[in-house]
Amino acid sequence: MSAPVPLTLGSEAAVEVLSTCLRDFGAVHFRVTGGCMEPRLREGQEVVVSARRRPRWGDVVLVRQANGLRLHRLVARPLFSAAGRWRTQGDRLPGLDAPLAARDVLGTVVDPPSRSRMRALRALAAAAWRRMGTRA
Questions:
Q1: pTM to 2 decimals?
Q2: Average of pLDDT values for 125-136?
């Protein structure tokens, strides 16, 4: 077996390869890059992302953003957000990511287990608080 070929998560090739693998095989394994999800997910840690498990509020999901693929926590689903948009946030980041369409949520981290409703609730509360402060 040959050595794995690293893909840059911001590249269109990475998006296409991961989307195809998730569609055809249902799950992908890869290593975390960056520290925005620490301590839950550490840089270099291997994770399994599944396209077969429906994302739930508080899950860490693989999303397609303008700047590439990200593993961030799902903090709002269409039921909770205006215009049917999904919202995510890195656990160590100060603000919410830009709104996403459902098609941009590619899969859910299933190993290691990563769901945290408390972190999702704190992220939503902080975003609401900041928004209220800007209206005053």
A1: 0.75
A2: 70
